[in-house]
């Protein structure tokens, strides 16, 4: 009998890549979607999925659905994100990111699942001067980051209290196929392929970029080895930071871009680090990133060349 996996946020960037991997590995994949969900990323695989239209904030319907499915694994990716530097109100962030997660976790309380994976964000840490470790004091600087931190702390507290196999993966900056159109890498590749001039406001900003295949492998490792992960928080990054200007130079080579790149504030240095310390993750999951930035960007550019129609 196939294992049942219940995934929220399946129509998003990470969720789409994850459910495609789960289908290939012959899991029975149930996804939660809203009536107005944009399904452009999963149209071609809908017949291989079990979609359900239930709002995470509707606890009664959510509870009924989960007790009907009885999933072996629950993966929570749904969130109200931060794209293009645009934050949301604290009330809205808390409603979706925190209270939606609380409903999901508590609705599975009496289900004997093997693994529950909650998804956090590196933004929970705030600005740091050294590589970010899971035990660092978190100082979020946006409503989104504050809500995600509250969610992570709730999930950890619940796992410690109940001994349930619930783990939080703190993602840094994933990139790759099906990425959100407003994020730096897909937006830049799309413009480069069209021969447009590129205008970058903060070229010295740094991030820890991690190829999506490596991110998905971390989820798979949690599914396959849930023992001793209860209550853990694990960083999922490359362990290296890259500034935007260096990323743009790499993209220029991979795309063979000949047009102009205009940089603002080139002399304004980055004041903080944004880099994951992944030693704990390596130890707990026996996981490490397999694709370096050059390899990951090359695969991403090749995918965009074949699928640019999604971004027109």
From TrEMBL:
It holds the Pfam family Epimerase. Residues 5-237 form the NAD-dependent epimerase/dehydratase domain. It comes from the Bacteria. SUPFAM superfamilies: NAD(P)-binding Rossmann-fold domains. Gene3D superfamilies: NAD(P)-binding Rossmann-like Domain. PANTHER family: DTDP-D-GLUCOSE 4,6-DEHYDRATASE-RELATED (PTHR43000). Belongs to the NAD(P)-dependent epimerase/dehydratase family. This is dTDP-glucose 4,6-dehydratase. The lineage of its organism: Bacteria, Candidatus Daviesiibacteriota.
């Amino acid at each position: 009998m196939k294992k049942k996996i219940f995934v929220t946020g399946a129509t998003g960037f990470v969720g789409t890549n994850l459910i495609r991997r789960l289908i290939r590995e012959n899991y029975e994949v149930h996804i939660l979607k809203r009536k107005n969900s944009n399904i452009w990323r999963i149209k071609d695989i809908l017949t291989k999925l079990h979609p359900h239209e239930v709002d995470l904030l509707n606890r009664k319907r959510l509870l009924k659905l989960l007790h009907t499915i009885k999933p072996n694994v629950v993966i929570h990716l749904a969130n109200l994100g931060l794209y293009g530097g645009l934050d949301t109100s604290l009330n809205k962030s808390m409603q979706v990111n925190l209270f939606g997660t609380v409903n999901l976790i508590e609705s599975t309380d009496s289900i004997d699942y093997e693994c529950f994976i909650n998804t956090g964000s590196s933004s929970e840490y705030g600005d740091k001067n050294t590589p970010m470790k899971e035990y660092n004091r978190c100082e979020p600087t946006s409503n989104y980051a504050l809500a995600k931190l509250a969610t992570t702390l709730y999930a950890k507290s619940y796992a410690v209290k109940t001994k349930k196999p619930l783990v939080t993966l703190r993602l840094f900056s994933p990139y790759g196929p099906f990425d959100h159109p407003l994020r730096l890498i897909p937006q830049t590749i799309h413009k480069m392929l069209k021969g447009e001039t590129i205008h970058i406001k903060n070229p010295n900003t740094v991030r820890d970029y991690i190829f999506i295949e490596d991110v998905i492998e971390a989820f798979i490792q949690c599914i396959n080895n849930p023992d001793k992960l209860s209550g853990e928080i694990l960083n999922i990054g490359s362990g290296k930071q890259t500034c935007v200007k260096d990323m743009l130079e790499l993209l220029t080579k991979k795309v063979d871009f000949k047009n102009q790149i205009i940089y603002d504030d080139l002399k304004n240095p980055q004041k903080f680090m944004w880099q994951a310390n992944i030693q704990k993750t390596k130890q707990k999951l026996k996981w490490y990133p397999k694709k370096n930035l050059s390899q990951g960007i090359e695969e991403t550019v090749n995918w965009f060349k074949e699928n640019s129609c999604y971004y027109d």
